[in-house]
C-alpha cells in the first residue's frame, strides 16, 4: 500500500509534537522528584499577629528565690503494745498462719505484736515527713515566706533550693488567721530574694506566673491571668483573695505568684477542686496583706491585732429598709461582748457601723480588716447609725484574743407555756421562761420568716431596737413601722447564745 507524501508529512509532525510533550512532562516530573515538592504556584498562608509574651526572662530571674519546703513532725505512738489497738482483722478464718501474716503486715510482728510494736515505736518517735509545700525568700539573709498550714504541725524544716541544695530552717512565727508563716534558713549566706508588689494596681486580666513545687516534682512554672479580686471563700475573717487561673496543685501552697516585673502579687493558699487537682480556680493571699503580716512575724514572731469586741452581720437591703438606711452598706452589730471595748464605749446590738476613722465600712469583712490593721490600744472613731441618725463614739481598741470565744453550755428548756400566734409573720411564739423575749415554737414553711432562716427554738428579743415580752409588743412595733413608711421590721434573734438580726416585711400591699 502506498502512502501519499502529504499524509506521511503530517504523521511525522504529530510524532515529533508528542515526543516534545513527553520531554517537557519528564523535565517537570524530574524537577518535582529532585526538589521533593510540588511546583510552587502561590505563597503559603502566613498571618502577622501579635506574639504571646514569653515568661522566660521573669522565670529565669525569680526561680532562684523560690524553694521547696519539707516539714517533719514527731508523732508519738498511741499504745505500748498491740493489745490496745483494735483488731481490724477479727473476722479472719481461724488459721494461725493467715493471722500471723496479717499481724506482720500491720507492723506488729510476733509474740502478740510486742516485738513488732517496739520496733514500730522507736521509729515513730523520729521526725517523719508529714507535709511538703513551697516558699520564697524575702531577704538576703534567709527569711522566707510560706503557708501556716504547711508548717503548722512541723518540728523540723528543710528548705530545698532551686539547684537542689538542702538547708535546715527554723520557724520564726505563724499567723493562722491569714495562713502565713515565716521561716529562717540557718547559717550564713546570701540568698536571691524577691519583693512584694503593690497589689492595688493588679487588674483582672493581668498576666501572672505561679512558681512552686506541685506534688513534690520540684520547681514548676505555670501561667495564667488574674480572674477576680476580693474573693471571700469562708476561710476566715480577713478573706480578700486574688483569684487566678494558673494551674496550682497540691504542693504549691506557700509559693509565690508573680507579675511580669518579677514582683510577688500573691501567695498560693487554696484551690477550688472537686477532683483534688487543678481546675483553673486558685486563690492567693494579696501582697498587701502578706507584707504587713510578714513584717510583724519577723519582728515579734506573732501578730497583734486591734479588737472591737462585737459580733457583726451583713446589712441586707431589707435590714437597711427597716432601719431607714439609704444603702445596704456597713456592718450590723448583733451583740456587744461584755468584756469588749466596743460595749464599754457605748456600742449596742442593733447599731450599724458605717465608718472607722472616716473610712467607709462596706461589709463585715471590711470592718474586720480595718480594725485588725490597727495595733491594740489605738483610739479610733467609730461612726454608727442608730435610731435613724448618725453618731460617733471613740473606742480604745483591745487585743484580739488568740482563740475564739467559746459558746456557753446549752440549757435544758422547761415546758413551754401556752403559745400565741403572729399570723402576719407566719410565727407561733410563747413567752420565754425568764420573761425576756418570745420563743418561736412553730414557723409557717411558706412564710417570709421561714425563707429568712427563723427556726423553732429561736428567741425574739427585740423588734426595731425595742425589747419585746409579748405579742402585743411585736404588733406595736409593726404598726409603728407602717406609720413611718417602712416596709420591714428588724427582729433580733438569739440562737445558741448567738445574736443576729432578721428583717421581715410588714403590711404587704
Question: Could you walk me through the main structural features you see in this protein, from its secondary elements to its overall organization?
Answer:
- The protein is an alpha+beta fold.
- It has eleven helices and 27 strands.
- The protein has helices at residues 5-35, 56-62, 96-105, 114-124, 148-151, 287-300, 317-323, 341-345, 364-372, 448-451, 471-483, and strands at 66-73, 128-137, 143-146, 156-160, 166-175, 180-185, 207-212, 220-231, 241-244, 256-258, 264-271, 282-286, 306-307, 310-314, 331-336, 352-356, 359-360, 379-386, 389-396, 398-399, 420-422, 427-431, 438-443, 459-463, 466-467, 488-495, 498-505.
- Strands 21, 22, 23, 24, 25, 26 and 27 form a seven-stranded antiparallel β-sheet that branches. A six-stranded antiparallel beta barrel has the order 1-2-3-6-5-4. It has a six-stranded antiparallel β-barrel with strand order 7-8-9-12-11-10.
Key features of this structure:
509 residues, alpha+beta, 6-stranded antiparallel β-barrel, 27 strands
Q: Compute the CA-based radius of gyration.
A: 37 Å
Helix content: 10-25%
User: Could you give a short account of the major beta sheet?
Assistant: 7 strands, antiparallel
Average pLDDT figure: 79
- Content of β-strand: 25-35%
Alpha-beta classification: alpha+beta
Would you report the number of β strands?
27
Short structural summary:
The protein has 509 residues and is an alpha+beta fold. Helices cover 23% and strands 31% of the residues.
Task: Give the topology.
Elements lengths: L4 H31 L20 H7 L3 E8 L22 H10 L8 H11 L3 E10 L5 E4 L1 H4 L4 E5 L5 E10 L4 E6 L21 E6 L7 E12 L9 E4 L11 E3 L5 E8 L10 E5 H14 L5 E2 L2 E5 L2 H7 L7 E6 L4 H5 L6 E5 L2 E2 L3 H9 L6 E8 L2 E8 L1 E2 L20 E3 L4 E5 L6 E6 L4 H4 L7 E5 L2 E2 L3 H13 L4 E8 L2 E8 L4
Amino acid at each position: 500500500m502506498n502512502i501519499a507524501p502529504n499524509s506521511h508529512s503530517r504523521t511525522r509532525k504529530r510524532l515529533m509534537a508528542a515526543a516534545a510533550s513527553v520531554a517537557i512532562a519528564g523535565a517537570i516530573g524530574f524537577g518535582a522528584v529532585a526538589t521533593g515538592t510540588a511546583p510552587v504556584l502561590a505563597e503559603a498562608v502566613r498571618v502577622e499577629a501579635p506574639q504571646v509574651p514569653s515568661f522566660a526572662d521573669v522565670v529565669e530571674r525569680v526561680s532562684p528565690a523560690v524553694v521547696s519546703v519539707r516539714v517533719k513532725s514527731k508523732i508519738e505512738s498511741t499504745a505500748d503494745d498491740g493489745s490496745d489497738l483494735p483488731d481490724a482483722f477479727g473476722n479472719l478464718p481461724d488459721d494461725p498462719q493467715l493471722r500471723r501474716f496479717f499481724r506482720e503486715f500491720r507492723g506488729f510482728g510476733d509474740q502478740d505484736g510486742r516485738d513488732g510494736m517496739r520496733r514500730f515505736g522507736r521509729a515513730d518517735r523520729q521526725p517523719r515527713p508529714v507535709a511538703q509545700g513551697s516558699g520564697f525568700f524575702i531577704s538576703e539573709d534567709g527569711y522566707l515566706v510560706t503557708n501556716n498550714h504547711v508548717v503548722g504541725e512541723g518540728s523540723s524544716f528543710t528548705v530545698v533550693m532551686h539547684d537542689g541544695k538542702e538547708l535546715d530552717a527554723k520557724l520564726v512565727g505563724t499567723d493562722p488567721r491569714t495562713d502565713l508563716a515565716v521561716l529562717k534558713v540557718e547559717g550564713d549566706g546570701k540568698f536571691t530574694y524577691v519583693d512584694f508588689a503593690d497589689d492595688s494596681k493588679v487588674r483582672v486580666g493581668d498576666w501572672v506566673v505561679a512558681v512552686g513545687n506541685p506534688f513534690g516534682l520540684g520547681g514548676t512554672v505555670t501561667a495564667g491571668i488574674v480572674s477576680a479580686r476580693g474573693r471571700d471563700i469562708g476561710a476566715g475573717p480577713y478573706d480578700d483573695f486574688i483569684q487566678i487561673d494558673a494551674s496550682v496543685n497540691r504542693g504549691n501552697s506557700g509559693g509565690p505568684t508573680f507579675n511580669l516585673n518579677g514582683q510577688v502579687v500573691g501567695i498560693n493558699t487554696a484551690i477550688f477542686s472537686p477532683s483534688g487537682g487543678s481546675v483553673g480556680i486558685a486563690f492567693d493571699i494579696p501582697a498587701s496583706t502578706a507584707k504587713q503580716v510578714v513584717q510583724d512575724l519577723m519582728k515579734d514572731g506573732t501578730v497583734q491585732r486591734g479588737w472591737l469586741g462585737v459580733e457583726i452581720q451583713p446589712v441586707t437591703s431589707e435590714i437597711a429598709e427597716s432601719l431607714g438606711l439609704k444603702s445596704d452598706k456597713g456592718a450590723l452589730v448583733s451583740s456587744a461582748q461584755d468584756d469588749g471595748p466596743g460595749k464599754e464605749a457605748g456600742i449596742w446590738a442593733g447599731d450599724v457601723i458605717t465608718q472607722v476613722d472616716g473610712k467607709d465600712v462596706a461589709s463585715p469583712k471590711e470592718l474586720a480588716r480595718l480594725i485588725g490593721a490597727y495595733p491594740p490600744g489605738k483610739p479610733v472613731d467609730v461612726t454608727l447609725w442608730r435610731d435613724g441618725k448618725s453618731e460617733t463614739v471613740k473606742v480604745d481598741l483591745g487585743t484580739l484574743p488568740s482563740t475564739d470565744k467559746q459558746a456557753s453550755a446549752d440549757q435544758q428548756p422547761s415546758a413551754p407555756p401556752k403559745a400565741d400566734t403572729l399570723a402576719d409573720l407566719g410565727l407561733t411564739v410563747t413567752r420565754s421562761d425568764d420573761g425576756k423575749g418570745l420563743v418561736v415554737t412553730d414557723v409557717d414553711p411558706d412564710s417570709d420568716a421561714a425563707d429568712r432562716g427563723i427556726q423553732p427554738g429561736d428567741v425574739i428579743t427585740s423588734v426595731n431596737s425595742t425589747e419585746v415580752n409579748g405579742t402585743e409588743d411585736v404588733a406595736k412595733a409593726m404598726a409603728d413601722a407602717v406609720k413611718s413608711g417602712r416596709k420591714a421590721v428588724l427582729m433580733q434573734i438569739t440562737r445558741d447564745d448567738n445574736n443576729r438580726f432578721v428583717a421581715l416585711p410588714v403590711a404587704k400591699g
